[in-house]
Amino acid sequence: MMEGKLPLVDNDTESLATKFSNFFHDKIVTIQQSINQHDNSSLAFNNPGYSCTLLGNFTPFTIDEIQKLVKSSKQTSCELDPISTSVFLTYLEILLPTITSIINKSLMTGTVPALFKSAVVKPLLKKPSLDPNILKNYRPIRDVFYC
Fold first, then answer.
1. Is-above-0.70 flag for pTM?
2. Checking CA distances to 77, which of 35, 43, 120, 132 falls within 20 to 30 Å?
3. Which has the closest alpha carbon to 66: 40, 28, 112, 105?
4. What is the pLDDT of residues 55-101, one digit of tens each?
């Protein structure tokens, strides 16, 4: 089998998932290596004309701000969510102090809880006319409609 080519029919979904995972992982490694080899002096954060605010100095979010943000967000759910969106919204008032604390501590420490670093990523064919048996014809898309 040619490198990056899938069999026409692969009933072994675990094997197929591994092939996609390895393919996209290798693409990321290649991009990272390319960035590391790039002349970093031209990057925005090394550019004297570029300014930014560091998160070490920010006003923590209030419960009201988080509530407004949650209520204005699209009401979708993901298979990784521990509870459904409707249950979450039903108990939002009770959960808000904890959620606000997690968000503020995450921003203050510059870390994100490992549990929040998971996503469902589905390979999507770039164009319908492309051969679905060739891995490079896919993009890794986070399922924005469900997650």
1. no
2. 132
3. 105
4. 557 789 999 999 999 999 888 877 778 888 899 999 999 999 999 99
Query: What gap in Å lies between CA 29 and CA 140, rounded to an integer?
Result: 14
First to last CA, the chain: 34
Tokens representing 108? 């203050």
For 43, phi then psi, to 5°, come to -70, 150
DSSP classification of residue 3: T
For CA atoms 139, 143, 144, 147, give the dihedral sign: negative
Mean pLDDT in the chain?
A: 78
Bridge partner list, 139: 124
Q: How far is CA 95 from CA 12, 26, 67, 91, 135, in A?
A: 41, 39, 10, 6, 42
All structural domains of the chain with their residue ranges: 12-52, 53-147
Question: For 128-139, how does the pLDDT look when each residue is reduced to its tens digit (9 = 90+)?
Answer: 899 888 888 988
